[in-house]
Amino acid sequence: MALKTCDFLVIGGGSAGYNAARVAVEHGLKTVIVDSARELGGLCILRGCMPSKTLLYMAEVLHLAQKGKTFGLRIPSARADMKAMHAQKLKIIAEFADSRLQQLKAGRFELIRAQATFLDPHTVRLSNGQKLRAKHILIGTGSKVSVPAAVPGLSEAKFWTSDDVLDLDFIPKSVLVLGGGIVACELAQFLNRIGTRVTLIQRSPNILRDHSAAASTVVQQAFVDEGIELFAGTQIEAISQDRRGTAVTFLHEGKRITRRGAHLFNALGREPNTARLGLGAAGVFTRPNGQIIINRWQQTSAPHIYAAGDCSGPHEIVHVAIQQGELAARHAAGVKDLKPIDHGLLLNVVFTDPQLATIGRLERELDAAGTPYLCATYPFNDHGKSILMDANYGYVKVIAEPKRGRILGAEIVGKDAGELIHACSGPLAMRATVFDLLRAPWYHPTLAEIITYPLEEIAGKITGR
């Protein structure tokens, strides 16, 4: 078979890869996407953001219906119909996946369904027998479920992954959840709300350990109040299974505890999906976990090879992956006056209830850098709109530069935090101050106006000096 050539080869057709290919074509590069997935669309559409948020919203509607008495409503019964929920989720996801498939097929690039393995820095062998040589290459192969060897008995156990939980068409009687990250917390709450008995076992002292202890404590309390049995700061000693289910034995606060469940859910994280690429032949360096090392232009140790998205990090977030893919394509095309991605504008949302959202530089980072700042918080349980919604968990925090009051970051844990955080994203990108935000109108009564209270407090500290 003849050697095929192109200007820009994209390995992986998810969010990073598709958008890199789209931009490469716009800049006149002959582009090919190679993707070996059984279903095209990428993690976000098929097994991540969209199916999980569909189910989480369904569970939220159910939860509100079950709280009808709180709002003076007579709702005799509200329960999950998992077969109907599953069917509705599949319908919605099919629409998103079909749209992405049409984009991939209709793009001005070639799409090849195959596995790619590097033969040398410019050439890959495809599983269909073809060879492909490219001037520039982008790796966007995403991530896969991690099975940590340090957890005794896990590799031998039969367990669910997030894929399995998102594909349920029945209500499990009981589930043991290993992990306390975003996926673990979002899906543990989902399972609990549809009627499953959930035990969450987390190794770190707090769930959502990448966020502040204060914010994670709010979510943790909400979980406990809803009936999730939660153990943080544990050390797993053993996992055993029989025909009745799974038993996990762990140390917690000096005691040896065993919990049993009908099913085990491994939510201990994901790792870069790079093992089958033959990166050594390409001269591409990785970290011990397989994560591809990149510079600020998304270049790897082989400068003509780029990486973007979950396979390179540093943040496994869809909009960041899109930015990375687009930046890599423009850099490969020789576009002038490019700017690297500004991670000081990092936006993150956890879709638990209450939600947890952050943007910009937060206290932990500022303290580590020795950067002075002012911050102020205000609780949801003292705000009119959240009180009438019975949404009393959490707070909003604003962090600002101490001399002029320029916004540095914000943290919101509470009702619709993922929506509210965007009130700070534009101002942060425009380097606005607390005084700029206070000149804007804030309608009453809204959830958004709660942000004005920390803004006013910080403004008072600055003008009062």
Written description of the protein model:
It is built from 15 helices and 21 strands. The strands form 5 sheets. Strands 1, 2, 3, 4, 5, 6 and 16 form a 7-stranded mixed beta sheet that branches. A 5-stranded antiparallel beta sheet has the order 17-18-21-20-19, sandwiched between helices. It has helices at residues 15-26, 43-47, 49-66, 82-106, 162-166, 182-194, 213-226, 279-282, 318-332, 363-369, 384-388, 417-420, 422-429, 434-439, 452-463; strands at residues 4-11, 31-35, 110-113, 116-120, 123-126, 131-139, 143-145, 174-178, 197-201, 229-231, 234-242, 245-252, 255-261, 263-266, 270-272, 305-307, 347-350, 355-360, 374-379, 395-400, 407-414. With 465 residues, it is an alpha/beta fold. The protein has 3 domains: 4-144 and 271-332, 3-Layer(bba) Sandwich (FAD/NAD(P)-binding domain), CATH 3.50.50.60; 162-268, FAD/NAD(P)-binding domain (3-Layer(bba) Sandwich), CATH 3.50.50.60; 344-463, FAD/NAD-linked reductase, C-terminal dimerisation domain (Enolase-like, domain 1), CATH 3.30.390. Helix 1 packs parallel to helix 9, helix 3 (49-66) packs antiparallel against helix 4 and helix 3 (49-66) crosses helix 6 (182-194). The protein is globular.
